[in-house]
What we know:
The structure holds two protein chains of two kinds.
Chain A lengths: L1 H12 L19 H16 L2 H4 L9 E2 L4 E2 L12 E2 L2 E2 L9 E2 L6 E2 L19 H9 L9 H10 L1 H4 L15 H13 L7
Antiparallel strand pairs in A: 1-2, 3-4, 5-6
Helix pairs in contact in A: 2-7, 5-7
Chain B lengths: L1 E5 L2 E5 L7 H8 L18 E4 L2 E4 L12 E3 L7 H12 L9 H14 L5 H8 L9 H16 L1
Parallel strand pairs in B: 1-5
Antiparallel strand pairs in B: 1-2, 3-4, 3-5
Helix pairs in contact in B: 2-3, 2-5, 3-4
Amino acid sequence: MRIMLAAALAAFVSPAAAQVLRGPGDFSGIADQTERSVALFEEMGKVLTHPRCLNCHPVNGGPTQGDDMQPHEPPVVRGVADFGAPGMNCATCHSAENVEFVGSPGSIPGHEPWALAPLSMGWVGLSLGEICAQIKDPERNGGKDLEALHEHNAEDGLVGWGWEPGEGRTPAPGSQELFGELTRAWIDTGSACPS
Amino acid sequence: MIKLGVNGKEVTLDLDPETPLLWALRDELRLTGTKFGCGVAQCGACTVMLDGMPRRSCVTPIGSIDGSEVTTIEGMEGPEIEAVQAAWAALDVPQCGWCQSGQVMSATALLQLVSNPTDEDIDNAMNGNVCRCATYVRIRQAIHDAAKTLEG
């Protein structure tokens, strides 16, 4: 009972931390290839819909922040280059790496580059099926084919920041390596989308 | 050893590379015009120019900017800062004044980038500069006035 209570409390305090990312091998029991592909994408969805990704993939103006996805503070706007307003762009506060605060808990996140995903890549509030169709669409994903999409998920530094987000932020589930393996398996099984 | 250009002079800092630039400016170089407000990039009081662009010095470790050029409120020059200072004085913008060097830095940066800013441009650029005396209306007007001065 005590253990259950502790687990429930931990989940309440940080629901994002409770997520575990399974690997491609965990889906080998699904005989139908398309069903397996859908299941693999749904597993990728744990990363895609994690606050570390969603906060900078908004469907409107500026970013959100934190595990509870509050509006960014101070208020910021997307700007014409997805990099904030003239006179206060992302680099006014964010640098090439996470920086721990001095004298206070927490840190300010950073990476080079640091910017919002373009509006065409916003997916806050979309279903996994909609996100899947969106990220496969070169018209909306920055001209990426599936191989480029795999490279993005498996190698891109800003994607990788999601697993090293600095003090005060829950990392995305699993690892970038595992996310890349899931993406590979999803592509190899036909890159099917949830309905 | 970290080397920086500060207000046009080369300085060498024998400090922990993790030291925030704000600490180095105020405690080591005695440039106290730049203020500590929150220490977490929420208020803008510590704004300086880093290689010509506004930057919150409280979250900028000196080790991350080795070789950069820093300009503080003490070292600002040019038509935009002069127009901003004149407009600030004419409208008596500051009340307690604590945030004002950061406000002036951000306002000057905005005018360097956008010569005739709209209210929206001003709000977007100045949102990160908090004033607990709530001088926001005068700040906005002073920026408009400075823009008019720069227009000639």
